Amino acid sequence: MPLVPVSVLLKEAAAEGYAVGAFNCNNMEIVQAIVAAAEAEKAPVIMQASQGAIKYAGVDYIAAMVRVAARGARVPVALHLDHGTSFDQVVRCLVAGFSSVMIDGSHLPLEQNIALTRQVVSAARPVGVSVEAELGRIGGVEDDIAVTDREAFFTDPDEARYFVEQTGVDSLAVAIGTAHGRYKGEPRLDFDRLSRIKELVSVPLVLHGASGVPDEAIREAIGRGVRKINIDTNIREAFVGAARRKLDENPQEIDPRKILGPAREAAIEVIREKMRVFGCSGKVRG
Ligand SMILES: [Zn+2]
């Protein structure tokens, strides 16, 4: 199947009340794990390239790997840029064949965030690529992007409505108490704020930093309008954990396939578990 825009997947998710998982693809094994999990669960899936993945593998390698994975897949696959940093980077991803992009202007003053997001929408929409933006600041560390607790702040519902009206974005990432990376304690999500944003905003909402959020809180967030959920840290933990166990068992091993193969299997399992929690399992018929 050709790559599908995220907006198409989220529209179906909104109609049926579930969320689609967006998983960071950092290397070939993880790309294969994401597709294998989606096929096993009969779930639509979003693969996303973080800033760190782009630095590590390059936009063209990621796009080529995901296109190959999608071509042979029996489920719809989207390729999405995560936390796009500039208009230029978005254009590079459009040229490379991404089906969706995020532009993250959340560090900018509101009107500048609006101007940048509008510019991206005007480039992406004519070529059928959907756009996610962020309002409020999600805390934590993800690859090159670090937001301290002092810099993080929650999304203002009225501002969210204004932002979506002004930009015409397809989906909106909200800051309601999740953070990128590992949590120190249990995260507490501001569900009232989420519901208020949902009331005022017409587009699907996106939850970043969902690794480590308890399943019950995830389900609650989906019930209140979240349609895309980003997972990275849980995959890293499963992947590297399995590779480490393999090396501990056999420190003499020199075949990378015997280390990365089990890591890939561990990633498949954790992704499948997430898909069941998100409610997207079994949504691809036929
Ligand atoms: Zn994020």
What does this structure look like?
Keywords: Lyase, Metal-binding, Zinc. Zn(2+) 1 binds at residues 83, 180, 208. The model has no long low-confidence stretch (mean pLDDT 95). The chain has eleven helices and eleven strands. Strands 1-2-3-4-5-8-10-11 form an eight-stranded parallel beta barrel, surrounded by ten helices. A three-stranded mixed sheet has the order 7-6-9, with no helix packed on it. The chain has 286 residues and is α/β, with parallel strands linked by helices. It has a single domain, classed as TIM Barrel, CATH 3.20.20. The radius of gyration is 18 Å and the shape is globular. The chain has helices at residues 6-16, 28-41, 51-57, 59-71, 87-96, 110-124, 157-167, 191-200, 215-223, 233-249, 256-278; strands spanning 20-24, 45-49, 77-84, 100-103, 130-135, 139-142, 145-147, 171-174, 179-180, 205-207, 226-231. Strand 6 (139-142) and strand 7 form a beta hairpin. The chain binds zinc ion (ZN).
Short précis:
This protein has helices at residues 6-16, 28-41, 51-57, 59-71, 87-96, 110-124, 157-167, 191-200, 215-223, 233-249, 256-278; strands at 20-24, 45-49, 77-84, 100-103, 130-135, 139-142, 145-147, 171-174, 179-180, 205-207, 226-231. With 286 residues, the chain is an alpha/beta fold.
